[in-house]
Design brief:
The chain is α+β, with helices and mostly antiparallel strands and 137 residues long. The chain is 37% helix and 22% strand. It has a four-stranded antiparallel sheet, with helices on both faces.
Length: 137
């Protein structure tokens, strides 16, 4: 997962939300790297302990495993616009554990998953509302 924000200071707004997700056991953060992309496209990767505004998250997850390779970070940096910062996260969806257990119990497994952009979900929901004859407000 990559979350983009305007600058390093803006990361302070993400840390509490990510910390809450970890503390509620919705996700487990396996690795995290902060990627800063200058206006001219130069990329600098920072470990979590080098970013003061992410101290709350660091306290919640401890020392993340080094799962992201330099190549992974390079690929992720392509999604980050120049002059912005991205948080590249490797997460485990802890909420899916009961479904995974049930699938294994039935002799199956979860074989795929995909994130759908919020804009597509909102559009689909708006279309559904229109199809149901509801009026927008």
């Amino acid at each position: 997962m990559i979350v983009s924000v305007p600058d390093l200071a803006s990361l302070g707004m993400l840390a509490p939300a990510l910390t809450d997700l970890v503390e509620q056991a919705a996700i487990r953060i396996l690795d995290v790297v902060v990627v800063e992309k200058s206006a001219n496209g130069v990329v600098a990767a920072r470990e979590l302990d080098a970013v003061d505004s992410m101290a709350a998250l660091r306290a919640a997850i401890g020392d993340p495993r080094a799962m992201l390779s330099d190549h992974d970070i390079e690929l992720a940096s392509l999604a980050i616009r120049p002059g912005t910062v991205g948080v590249v996260l490797v997460t485990e969806d802890r909420w899916a554990q009961p479904l995974s257990s049930a699938a294994r119990g039935a002799g199956g497994q979860i074989i795929a998953g995909e994130r759908i952009p919020a804009s597509r979900v909102q559009l689909a929901l708006a279309d559904r509302m229109d199809d149901d004859g509801a009026t927008g407000g």
